[in-house]
Amino acid sequence: MSNGDEHPGTGRRGYVGGVVRDALGAIRQLVSGLRTAFLALLVLIVLVVCVLTVPLGVGLLAAPAALRALHRLAGAERARLARFGPEVVAPEPPTDSPRAALRDPTTRRELRWLARHVVVGLPLGLLGFLLPILAVRDLTFPLYWRLVPADVTATSIGIGSSTSWADAVAVALLGVGWIAIILGLGPAMARAQAHPGRRLLAAGPETDLSLRVAELTATRAAALDAHAAELRRIERALHDGTQNRIVSVTVLLGAARRMVARDPAGAQELLERAQSAAEQALADLRAVSRSILPPVLSDRGLAGALTGLAAECAVPCRVDVDVPRRCAASVEATAYFVVAEALTNIAKHSGASRATVTARLTGGRLLLTVEDDGHGGATAPSESGDGGHGTGSGLAGIRRRVAAHDGTFRLASPPGGPTTLEVDLPCGS
Description:
By secondary structure, this protein is an alpha+beta fold. The chain has eleven helices and five strands.
């Protein structure tokens, strides 16, 4: 009976927790959409001004810059939508020429998205920003209602006044209503805000997807190369380290067996050396096994694993991890490798006095940032794997591993610093 009573409660708690997480995720998505919607309003105004000033000749001169702003904003919206859901596959790069833009299907679709994002996305983004503020304001009103002047409106909607505890509680009930709206309508509002972008900014049926196919083919090749390199590393570690130590143990044991009758003291010394070699071989095996898939990931999760890396780093390192659920094991292993290589680079090459590691799980994607205040000057590796601080820097390996997951790799390291490494990985399940 006890088991039967516990399961419904656990199910209800899980359902409520899921509703709250979905609502909070929707608020974050709406607020992030508010930024692109505000920029869309500015771009729309600029485009309208360009059209109106075409007879004066000014519009034609400013139109290419306005179109480039439109294309960059559309790219930013695709990246934003990818952080909160499936990737929006970009079409072929559109043109910046005003005359060609009138015939370019991608530009026409982006213009339609621009208008809809202003009309729909901007109000929804404002609601996503204001609703939590209104909820907190009204819900906490009973705590400070006595401090509010009598002629000041009590509610957040501008009507009513509060002269008693009953009025204050009524205002708090309005706050409960705001929370109900957030929980019940927040995800739908986020979907409505994202719908024009997902429909109009994705590659249309007239778009050639060969570039995307080529990109996926390259990332698959990068995954195979990274896998082969990892196998070679493991083979070298076993051959050069563990195997040699085991051979040494065998030789020492054979020599001790032959000496045990005529020189027991010498045989005892050889046995001690054999034991030491066996212990070193065992340590090498453990090191190799940890490099394949660090057990700390299984034992303590990504947060604990990254905290352990920061604790072992020679440079003081702060860790900020907000990953409420587990990612796919391969993604966590890649994230661990990225941070480990980045911290190794910082300790060896940067001359930094401090570093920061940040991990966020947003919309099904794991966002990693590693920053340091060093002298900078690191260069991002090319697609072929060249570049970085030099041979052995690890940046090429990071790029290959990230590309294998169809993630993104960004490195900003101006001379004089600071250096910021950003990695975006699809979390998987």
